[in-house]
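Reopening closed ticket. The problem is back. First fold of the pair:
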Amino acid sequence: MEEKNKLNELHMEVARLRQIIDGTNIGTWEWNVQTGETRFNERWAQIIGYTLDEISPTNIDTWLNFAHPDDLAESERLLNAHFDGHTPFYHCEVRMKHRDGTWIWVRDHGRVVTRNPEGLPEWIVGSHIDITQEKREDIAAQRLNKIASSVPGVIYEFEMDDDGQMAFPYASPGIADIYGVTPEEAMEQVDEVFAAIHPADVEYVEKSILQSAQNLEPWVAEYRVELHGETRWVSGYARPERLNNKTRWYGLIVDSTDTKKVSLKLEESQRRLKQAQTLAQLGHWEANTETGDLFWSPQIFEIFGFEPDSFQPSTKAFYDAVHPDDRKRVQASEEQAKLTGIQDVEHRIVRPDGTIRWVHEYAHVVPQRDNADSSVLIGTVQDITERKALEIRLREQSNTDALTQIFNRRYAMAFLKKLFNVNHGRLNDNEECAVISFDIDHFKKVNDTYGHAVGDRALTLLAQTVKEVLRSDDVFARMGGEEFMIILPGTTLSEGYCLAERVRELVESTAISTRSGVTHITVTLAVASYSMNDSSVEDFYVRLDDGLYKGKREGRNRVVLVDNEEA
């Protein structure tokens, strides 16, 4: 009777174990290390898309045939470590070939339960858990972090509850460049972030946050931070959303010091210019548009570079001095003045010595003193060459990468959007266009080995080398970090592939000097052309980026041709 009770208890225990295994969706395996005999449950086969009957009879080769070849060496190493008693359990994450041809991830876990008389492992039992989705999410998170790390400035998530308590649930590594703290420090001590803000700007920043929280309008701010004893300007933009008792912002903050300095210089120049207009006499002129007679004050002769004693002003002489490309604009402003009574135009002039100057003309149409039926233009002219140079420089800075002096990401993406007419599902004017995306292989190792100065030199030398083989209308841009893009209007996909291969060879053969000698770098490139199946420029860019990742997975230092059929 007692033995029968024990047998019943054993059966109940086995039943409970099976219920637990079935309930947790775990595949189980048993393996006799000495004979190769294996025992798998139904779930083990289901994980890879089969029934147990379909893969039977089984032995250790069943596992070896389904496991990814690249993972077997690590699995064997971990098994041997467990067999030798170095680890209490065998634990490994490996890929297995699914019935549909894809590779799925499993967490392989086991333990030796018996050994033979010689002490060698005999039976080992274990389990398989499908972790494919977990792995995909992990890869996606790694990709997001890599993208966030390559974006200038800091991408962040910031929240504030109704009591004023603030937190940074997420911040990209770029926060160290903006506030001098790590993402972990920002999450743990939000006060450390605000401590970096210039004391004179703290109240302004806090008020701007409160205002954005109240009206749920985008937060836009420009302010100073003090970092490593230096005052820097930063610009921030974030969109808020209301969640229960808190407001959450998702945004970007970038270092705008260089742009701000140019802007401040421009503002100062404009202030002084206005002051000069008030305190000093400006060059003035009077023109009769009917007779062509023109009067200039001495200051205008100086601006136009003519000698008053040897030059007779006239409407014809004035138009001869106007830059040929601007004459229509000046004529249109005069016609508009006849309707509005005001002429306000900026244009270029060509001085007798060939130099080009920018001038601003402002005039009113007034009746002639001795003839009420006739009118003249009376106005001023001002040399605005320096102001225009600053404006042009500011525009160039907004489109140019400071280190390599090629175009930046903003310009490249704007150029793509202009070039690809998505609404019509084709390129403008049916023009073909190939795009090359590439980045430097293992660039972090270059910085870590030789220092950032050599890394910057490598980026600059790469940009100079590649630029020499491009056409004048090709767009070459640094997209961030070690990532670059070449846009090739009027170029077929095959022609783009040939150029990409040439770029790869050029870069690989370029010598980079370091203190310890000469080193070389390689690049991985992806080439694609716009497809009818691309619903947006962003979709096209993702497809191009996927090709780049494919090249890295296949060993780097290669060109990947992205087929339009993949769109």
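Second fold of the pair, where the issue appears:
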Amino acid sequence: MNGGGFLPVSRADMAARGWEDYDILLITGDAYVDHPSFGTPVIGRLLESEGYRVAILAQPDWHDAAAIRAMGRPGLCCMLSAGNLDSMVAHYTAAKRRRSEDFYSPGKKAGLRPDRAVIAYTGRVREAFPGLPVIVGGLEASLRRFAHYDYWDDKVRRSVLVDSGADLLTYGMGERASLEIARRLRAGEKVGELTDIRGTACLRKERACAFEFLEIPSFEEVREDKRAYAEACREENREHDAIRGRALLQKHDERWLVVNPPAAPLETAELDALAALPFTREPHPMYDALGGVPAIEEVRFSIIHNRGCFGGCNFCSLAFHQGRYVTSRSHESVVAEAEAMTRHPLFKGYIHDVGGPTANFRHPSCLKQKKLGLCPDRSCLAPKACPNLDADHSDYIALLRKLRAIPGVKKVFVRSGIRFDYVLAEKKDDFLRELTKYHVSGQLKVAPEHCIDAVLDKMGKPRAEVFEAFCEKYEAMNGALGKQQYLVPYLMSSHPGSTLGDAVKLALYLKKRGVRPRQVQDFYPTPGTVSTCMYYTGLDPFTMEKVYVPRSYREKELQRALLQWFDPAKKALVLEALKKAHREDLIGYGPDRLVSPERPGGEARHFGDGKSGISGEKKQGSPRPGGRPAGQRKKLEETEKKDAVRHYGDGKSGPPRQKRHTEAPPPAARRTGPRKGPGKK
């Protein structure tokens, strides 16, 4: 697994290689983990393979330029990124509370990158090396390439290219654009002349572009007019296609932001070559004494086999970053990576995941896309599958079979999430059978997100009936295979379109099915997504219809509490929510109620199953009229309280729609779930 050493991280490392100078400085807000799941090392290894001398400066002190200056001035440029996450998402929860941990930093230590890292790092590079070309990229730059609503400032901000003062911005995965920038700078072109590179954005004084273009509402217009903001969002998403997409121009003050069309996605041979680069696949040893970098644990024995996602979820940034066109690595490349894993000293025989943005996508969603691109005005899967959808898992099945056959591999899991609607769209059950039989670790994670169709439409998710059909099919398959495995549904509260009444209906839906989520994802208005546009404008950018938006912290808290109605700590909030929703009929005793009422002389305990116990009402040992003796009642209460903390899921949380923690859940999670399969007692 050792690829021959890390990229230089200091002048001493450069000297050890015999370098007196170097070409490109890469700066990242993450710790340096030399693994293909981390964007900056991918760009570094790719540039290295083309003959460039590259050094990495990870999480430098941004308070002054000394740390950057100590690396020495590079010959060509500096390319910088906030890291694998937007720095504000990395630092703050959906409630705008500061996070206490950062899994992309040594020892999970928070605060090692600045807020708005792209802006902060660019300023320090300008100070350290005046006149050096600065190119910003990565997720933060990609999602903030246009004028955008910023949840933390609660206002519309300029493109991050304008606010940072960088020379160029790369968006998307960045390999093609980064190579072309480096090649042309080395050839002697000035950075101001690099205005015609796909997958980049630049600023120009004149209204001009090398590509066919469309002008969208200016920064000043989208700042003042929410309808103009929604119109701009619609065009930004429609034109994000490497085949048919046009460049977009957006005026900022007296300059024009020129966002060129997306770069073409890497094809199979290119993805294979990228995976074969000499990554060490480990955190840099300088972090060993600091506790290592925890993010490696999720990916060390996982394999990314694809890129792109045509799922089209409105709250997800994937489509606006990687794009909707799916490409994948060859079987030979994936098998070679798995075989190398078996030689790792820590490998125990388990491949934790064979996935990507969506695990069960291996090819474009339809045959027309290679020539015509993706449809600008419809989703491939929602609200129902397109008639042209090519739902075929045969290639993925063949790949998983090859991985299972590798000597030293005991089990191959699929944990990065599957699209259950895509599974149902295939007429054959071969994939579901193999998935259920070989690749589920007791629980299969899926993301229905909600159960109300009007809310699902705003999310860009399939209708509730599709999830119900999958549940039945999955349950039947488990029964046929003699297995007892459960579904773990990911759920989201407070998404635009979700009223308090909708949250009540979702709570009833979950209770009816015996689902008790311990973790609920609040909607997080991250930059660049369609759902964030809805949150800010109150409009659906595709229809311009008004959308209800839960905005206040209190309403968000009430919606989240309803999804955890069984938790005694949430009882007061659940009562308040039911009263505000005028659903007092759900307050009481019995299986058709959500929560018991407050009682004079003592608070009723209720854990979601229609039973309650009273604290402080009678002396221990005295029976309640018509009920159990108090001693038995106390034992029942203790049992119910234990049951209340049983949950679906892994009990961990992280930034929205980033890769989730996927280690096996505690035993309590396995004892809850949908009905057991046919023939099970």
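Update: turned out to be a display glitch only; the data is intact. The longest helix spans residues 464-481. DSSP finds 26 helices and 22 strands in the chain. Please close again.
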